[in-house]
């Protein structure tokens, strides 16, 4: 099932648990924790993970390291710091708030690390009603992992993101094969996923806080923020390639949209949040 309503995969202590097995694929997963000061201990197993504060702050302990995550009030309040957890580890998270844990099956064991909010590349993409903000905190060029990639996208009310529609499902030059998860907050909004010839998939889901959409293949986008309602999503991506890449292929019917952005102003509402140094890449 590509659309996963909030709460439908809860399994204590996890408020959300999408594993590669439950998604019906091989690499990408996502968990979420809601904490009120308690400690949750878990094994990472064969998955590398991130701990990403969606709201609140926490302490992460793993492999003898103790990382304090300052976090943020909400996903719309600022860019957050985060922690990396390797495969084959025991981890403890103690805090108050809501936390996302993107995961990916991996084979290379990297050290526990802290990702500072000030080091997160913040990018403005698109123009006009396709203006949006992308926090590239775990993009390939921003943070080292074995398989895992993750970014955050903030879309002002009335705007479209993940647009033009694009896909990552065909090996070859200029396109990486990836499994992708969309986790939403804010909204209501709408998410579209549709297939290429010979590989059908058809999703048009109304999404809000805690909802998830899985993209095993096919074109995904647009992500539409209803007028008056800002939309946030966390993208988790992983695939078989040795070198991490988020390369994509636009739907040829809609690729021309990109050429129109040079003649349109960027929506003044973006960037919607900033990292501590305020730096943004156009």
TrEMBL record:
Signal peptide: none annotated. It is an enzyme of class 5 (isomerase). Keywords: Isomerase. The keyword Isomerase applies. The keyword Lyase does not apply. Gene3D superfamilies: Jelly Rolls. Its EC number is 5.3.1.30. One of its GO terms (biological process) is inositol catabolic process. GO terms for molecular function: 5-deoxy-D-glucuronate isomerase activity; glucuronate isomerase activity. Pfam families: KduI. PANTHER family: 5-DEOXY-GLUCURONATE ISOMERASE. NCBIfam families: myo_inos_iolB. This is 5-deoxy-glucuronate isomerase. It comes from Sphaerisporangium album.
